[in-house]
Specification:
Helices cover 45% and strands 14% of the residues of chain A. Chain A has 546 residues and is of the alpha/beta class. Chain A is globular and about 75 Å long. Chain B contains 17 helices and no strands. Classes of the chains: A alpha/beta (546), B mainly alpha (450).
């Protein structure tokens, strides 16, 4: 294993078999997608990987959380933003004014219109809705003929902003629209300007900025692109946008010229949210268009991807996979239905939330559900996972536990080695707003631990089964609605009161994982995918199935 | 709208002729009273001296040079100090005004005293005159600073009171020292200096009362000179341009010709007083209201359409002011041209000065319009554009005056053409900048600052 670093490739310019493009995760964030990426890399030792991490800004993440495997020949980083400069004093402001003035003069000397701006115009106004136009937009963006300063200070980009204002946000506070316009596009332009990491093929682990960059590099280098979506990026962003408090909308009240106008904030959905949302959807469409293959984790997600503009013919379903405790075959498991079952314990029920403590996991609902269940049943609740990604949210969760007076029953234990986690749990609970195909459920099931999860992503498939044979195995837990603490609490109470039910569900989970969600199957599918894309290290003929 | 703006607007809003006249007289008082009173005193001294048979030429030449030097050298200082003060008032850091202003005043007094010493030596003033000449230079230099800061911080009444006291005091003292005590020409200088000192004392008192009690002694003015360097350079260029033709005449034709030329120019500048007053009232009322509304709209969250309307409103208002100033000035210039012989006679100049006075009046009119354009550019913080106009005026005035002299023409022709050309260029620049106000306002915003 290599020491974690952010050094350039061992041999400058060395071409990797696969360049993995991730947004904000591997190797700087633990869990979820990062674990999956790490697993994919380790599972293909014959393939050389380059990893491109798209980060928000330098310093946003600390040290890598994973030791880079030896087959990673380069870890590259690009940032959507620079680290914000501190406030300037008057003299420095004056210098900056002059600098901007010079930049503005330089920005407006272009004779040919920018292709990137033309692409952005189509992206916003048409939303890349027409499949035929998507590759054209990508080619425009791939031209990278719009320097950041020209965008920030030039007339042409402002003209595009005014067109956007007229057509999509005519009553929106223009000041807000202006800053959002910059916030949307500066990351994009910084990414477009990033040097291409040479690779035989590109593999984006999401749409969004990473997916767009992968698509652009794929166009520029004429190397194939594969896309794996765990969650549906554009929809997850929409959920975040719907709750974002940094987007406002103002309606002005004129007092008739007395100069006493005030702003009130309109309750309707801001066009700014729509612009952001449309932008992310368009990014997804562009990545879908350029991808040779699109891998999704579940049927549920496949349907969403098709609805969002992906070609159904390109989509393969490759579920996540985990190793069974001693790597037995599914056939063996069928013959030994009790294998892997946890020992039943009288009380209390050991409940685990396993994952990052971030808003999208909706830990608040989990805590409330446990509080409700604790009125009826004895529970020993553990929150297992890193709490440093969103310290403010983590603090809110701790405060809630304290206010509910559940400090004795609900413990925040931080990250734990995966092998230890499930041995000490009777049930895993996942209350996320959004998920792809959570490894947590698979890992729990592999150890015979049932799960209670919200009806997002592939959770229902994992718990109730996807196809007829799968469903025949029986439920391996409960599926609840999103943000429904009473439903989660009811499920907890049932499992606490009925050890036999817990045992049956745990066994079903184990059988389901053994039959459909083994790591070796997933790796085989990806080995085939890489081979089909021309990654030299992978030589298995391409054969994937849903 | 600034405080004086509200008062002017209230006068105008009365709808009566008296209210409107009152507003414009206030404009005259604020924009021109100090200079008007000072020029009136100097003219009166010349007349009194001629009647008493005293040789006033040395005194007049020295005072002309002192005013030229102080107005030019103090321009960058008073522009920076007044801008610094205005910004601290705007950002509510009033405690940072007092200490830098005191230090600037002290340095101004010392600096101009030294400049005065150089002047009295260079002009070979007799010792009796030199003794008061150097301090007078310091007093006048400090006056400019107090006027610029006081204009924003104090009531115009303070300024009027200061010059209203100093002007007659100076005139009376000069007359008394010459006629009663027989001091001769030096008496005029001492008397004038006494009046100016009284003016400065009242100004300092008024400004000191306006400064907040608490003072942040760590506040520094020096960084403001870097921050506002383009403003300072622009002001310097503009003020030099006022004197550029006279300096060229002095260098080519000598002191007597230059003094004669400067005296005519000084009188001709009286013709811009009505336009100054009109501009002042319009800028402080209607234009300022449009200006504030535009930026308030941005802050309050107005949509693009409203901002574009606001920007168009500003452009329309600016065109109206330029047009109005042109009309007022054309009227005043017309009267000055027709009444030139009477004016020349009244101020004690030779009849030969009449055609020069007419041409100078036209040049002053164009230069006044250029000043309006520079002020409009300042309003939108277009410092580099203001600098371009100011330096264009300076270079044009100096070069064309020199060219006129080289061709054997009257130098005022060069000055007139330079002012007219710069004014025309300024109109074009102002219109162009205001046509892209929304674009410039937003696309000049920095990115990536905390």
């Amino acid at each position: 294993m290599k020491s974690p670093d952010t050094q350039p490739p061992r041999t400058p310019g060395q071409r990797a078999d696969v360049c993995l493009l991730v947004e904000g995760t591997y190797p700087f964030v633990s869990g979820g997608v990062s674990s999956w990426v790490h697993d994919i890399i380790r599972g293909h030792p014959e393939v050389s990987f380059a990893v491109l991490n798209v980060g928000s800004h330098p310093g946003a993440y600390g040290e890598p959380r994973y030791q880079l495997p030896d087959n990673v020949i380069g870890l590259h980083r690009v940032f959507c933003q620079e680290t914000a400069r501190p406030p300037l004093d008057g003299a420095a402001r004056a210098d900056l004014r002059e600098e901007i003035r010079t930049l503005r003069a330089a920005a407006d000397i272009r004779t040919e219109p920018s292709r990137v701006l033309a692409g952005l115009r189509r992206l916003h106004l048409e939303g890349a809705a027409e499949p035929a136009s998507r590759l054209g937009i990508l080619d425009d963006l791939a031209s990278n003929d719009l320097p950041l300063n020209e965008f920030l200070y030039g007339r042409a980009s402002f003209d595009l902003l005014t067109v956007l204002a007229d057509r999509t946000a005519s009553e929106t506070p223009f000041l807000d629209l202006f800053w959002h316009y910059r916030a949307i596009h500066v990351p994009l332009l910084r990414l477009l300007a990033a040097p291409v990491v040479p690779a035989a093929c590109y593999h984006a682990i999401a749409t969004g900025y990473a997916g767009l960059l992968a698509a652009v590099w794929s166009r520029r280098t004429e190397r194939p692109l594969a896309l794996t979506e765990h969650g549906i990026y554009a929809r997850e962003r929409e959920m975040e946008l719907a709750r974002a408090d940094w987007i406002r909308d103002a309606a002005e009240i004129d007092d008739g010229g007395f100069g006493l106008r005030t702003a009130t904030w309109a309750p309707h959905i801001s066009p700014l949210r729509k612009i952001w949302s449309g932008f992310f959807r368009a990014l997804s469409r562009l990545a879908y268009a350029q991808s040779a293959r699109i891998v999704t984790l579940s049927e549920v997600n496949r349907v969403k991807q098709v609805a969002d503009g992906a070609s159904a013919a390109k989509i393969d379903i490759v579920p996540n996979g985990v190793d069974l405790p001693d790597s037995g075959s599914p056939a063996d498991d069928d013959q030994q239905p009790d294998r892997g079952l946890i020992a039943l314990r009288p009380a209390p029920l050991r409940v685990g939330f396993v994952g990052r403590v971030v808003p999208i996991k909706d830990l608040i609902t989990f805590i409330r559900a446990c509080d409700l269940a604790l009125h009826t049943a004895a529970l020993e609740v553990r929150v297992i996972g890193p709490m440093d990604e969103d310290p403010g949210y983590a603090a809110r969760c701790r405060d809630l536990v304290a206010r509910l007076g559940r400090g004795q029953q609900i413990a925040f234990v931080g990250p734990m080695p995966p092998a230890q986690i499930y041995a000490e749990l009777d049930v895993v609970v996942l209350t996320s707003f959004s998920e792809g195909q959570p490894l947590v459920i698979l890992e729990a099931h592999a150890r015979g631990v049932p799960a209670i999860a919200t009806d997002v992503g592939a959770c229902r498939e994992l718990i109730e089964g996807r196809e007829a044979d799968d469903r025949a195995i029986g439920p391996s837990g409960f599926v609840t609605r999103v943000a429904a603490p009473k439903e989660t609490a009811a499920a907890l109470i049932r499992l606490a009161r009925d050890p036999q039910l817990r045992r049956r569900m745990g066994a079903a989970g184990f059988r389901r994982v053994a039959a459909y969600y083994q790591r070796r199957d997933m790796l085989t599918a990806y080995r085939a995918l890489y081979a089909s894309l021309g990654a030299s290290g992978a030589d298995v003929s391409y054969s994937m199935g849903g | 709208m600034a405080g004086i703006g509200w008062k002017l607007q209230r006068l105008i809003d009365r709808g009566s002729l008296a209210g409107t006249i009152g507003a414009y007289l206030t404009g005259v008082a604020v924009t021109s009273a100090p200079w008007l009173l000072t020029t009136a005193v100097l003219t009166s001294l010349r007349i009194v001296a001629r009647r008493s048979g005293t040789d006033f030429a040395v005194v007049e030449r020295f005072l002309t040079v002192v005013y030229a030097v102080t107005v030019i050298l103090s321009a960058p200082v008073h522009v920076v100090v007044s801008r610094y003060t205005a910004d601290r008032l705007y950002d509510h850091h009033v405690a940072k005004i007092g200490a830098p202003l005191r230090r600037a005043t002290a340095l101004t007094l010392i600096g101009f005293a030294l400049a005065g010493v150089v002047l009295v030596i260079a002009m070979r003033l007799p010792l009796a005159m030199a003794a008061v000449g150097a301090p007078l230079c310091a007093v006048i230099g400090a006056q400019w600073l107090m006027l610029s800061v006081g204009g924003g911080m104090t009531s115009p009444v303070i300024v009027l009171r200061a010059f209203g006291l100093g002007a007659p005091l100076g005139l009376c003292a000069a007359w008394a020292l010459d006629v009663t005590f027989g001091f001769g020409a030096a008496g005029y200088l001492y008397g004038f200096a006494a009046g100016q000192l009284a003016t400065l004392a009242v100004l300092i008192y008024g400004v000191a009362r306006a400064i907040p009690g608490q003072a942040d002694e760590t506040a520094r003015l020096a960084p403001a000179f870097r921050e506002y360097r383009l403003l300072a350079l622009s002001a310097l260029a503009y003020y030099i341009s006022i004197w550029a033709d006279k300096i060229v005449v002095y260098l080519v034709q000598g002191g007597d010709a230059a003094t004669f030329y400067a005296a005519i120019a000084a009188v001709s500048w009286f013709s811009v007083i009505p336009a100054f007053a009109w501009i002042y009232v319009q800028i402080e009322t209607a234009f300022y209201r449009r200006f504030r509304a535009f930026y308030a709209d941005i802050e309050i969250g107005a949509p693009l359409r409203k901002l574009q309307e606001g920007a168009e409103g500003i452009a329309v208002e600016a065109r109206r002011i330029l047009r109005g100033a042109g009309i007022v000035q054309a009227s005043a210039s017309g009267i000055a041209i027709v009444a030139a012989p009477l004016v020349v006679h009244a101020v004690g100049l030779s009849p030969n000065a009449t055609p020069l006075f007419r041409l100078n009046a036209l040049g002053a009119a164009a230069q006044m319009l250029t000043l309006l354009e520079v002020l409009l550019l300042y309003y939108f913080d277009l410092r580099r554009d203001a600098l371009v106009i100011s330096t264009g005026l300076l270079g044009g005035s100096a070069a064309l005056t020199l060219l006129a002299l080289a061709l054997g023409w009257n130098p005022v022709l060069g000055y007139l053409v330079a002012c007219a050309a710069t004014s025309a260029a300024g109109v074009v620049l102002v219109r162009r900048r205001l046509s892209t106000l929304v674009l410039d306002t937003f696309q000049s915003q920095p990115f990536g600052l905390s």
